[in-house]
C-alpha cells in the first residue's frame, strides 16, 4: 500500500515538474504562466530528484523520467559553461542596481562601484533622497555624467557614467512602451568607442502582465532597430528570467554576461525576504562586446542584488 502511494506521489511530482520545465517554451498571455516560468530551475531540480527517487522501487516511472531529466540537467548545466575572454585594453564594467524605492544603502552602492571599477551605472527606483545620499557617499566624483530622472516611489531611473552621456530618448523607455518606470536610452561617449545603452525596467508581470508583455516586445523591437554594427548594452531589472520566452526574444543576438561568465543560476531577487532568492531578473545584455567577468553584489535595503559585467 505504501509503495503504491509513494509511486503515485512520485508520478505527480514528476508530471508537475515536467510541466513546469516545459512551460519555458510556452508564450501565452498569462500572469500565472509568467510566475511558473520564473521557477523553472526549481522544476528542473524536482524532475531530477523525482526520477532518482523512482529508481529505487519504481523502475518504469524512472524510465519515463529519463528524457525530462536529461532536458532538466541540460537547462541547469548550461549557465555554468564559461565563454569569457581575458582582461585587456578597453575593458569596462557596467552595473545595474535596483534601489527599491531608493532605500538601498548608498555607501554600499558607491563601494561596489569602486570595488568593480564601474564605468557606467544604471540606477532603478532611484528617488531624490537616494540621489542626495549617493552624492554624499562620493558617487559624483566617480561617475559625474548623468541622464534620466529621480522620482518619488519606484518610477525614477538614472544612468551614471564616467564619460559624457547623450540622451537618445526622453526616458519613457522604448517608443510607445506602457511603463510607469523611466527607462532612459543614452549614447555613452566613451573616447574612441562610444556605445548605446538602454536602461531597462518594465512593469512586473505579477500585477501588470499585459504591460509587461508589451514593454518587453517593444524592447526587442528597439534591439532589432539599432544598427547591428553599433555596440549595444541593455541593463536593468527586466522583471524576467531567461526562462521567459519574451526575455529570450529580447536577448536574441546578444550576450548575457552572467551566462557567459558561467555564473550559474545566481538569482538576484528577492533579497532579504521570507523566501530565499529564486529568480535572476537583473541582467546586463551586450552586443558588440565580449564578456570578461560578471557577478552580483548584495546591497542592504533593497530586495535586488546589483548585477555587473566587465566586457571589452
Automatic annotation (TrEMBL):
Family matches, as InterPro entries: Endo/exonu/phosph_ase_sf (IPR036691), Endo/exonuclease/phosphatase (IPR005135)
TM region positions: 33-54, 61-81
Domain of life, source organism: Bacteria
Entry keyword set: Endonuclease, Exonuclease, Hydrolase, Membrane, Nuclease, Transmembrane, Transmembrane helix
Coiled-coil portions: none
One MF annotation (Gene Ontology) recorded for this entry: exonuclease activity
Presence of keyword Transmembrane helix: yes
Endonuclease/exonuclease/phosphatase domain mapped to chain residues: 95-304
Protein name, as recorded: Endonuclease/exonuclease/phosphatase (EEP) superfamily protein YafD
Organism: Lapillicoccus jejuensis
